[in-house]
Amino acid sequence: MQGLPALPKPYLFVFAAASLAAAVLACSTLAALLAPGLDPNLADKDFANYWMASGLLLSGGVQDLFGPWDIYFRHLQEVFGGVRALSRGIARRRSYA
Known about the structure:
Layout: H1 9-34, H2 45-59, H3 69-80, H4 84-96
């Protein structure tokens, strides 16, 4: 095994460019996650919705996804507990109606 210098020059160029792009992407992601004033959540409320939708699909309760919000929220509370952020979202939704 001769290592990286044994590769042809075009391959070395592509490898160097890909490594540089990966390093820039990793640094940008880390800087964005650590920036002041930002919430560094990688899994947000979408995770709960995907999890709940798949669980309702597998249990045969798909109609609850498209029913009134209170029914869906009750399912969310059963699975994830009484989450304050979700209840604040319900209060906001009702205030717009």
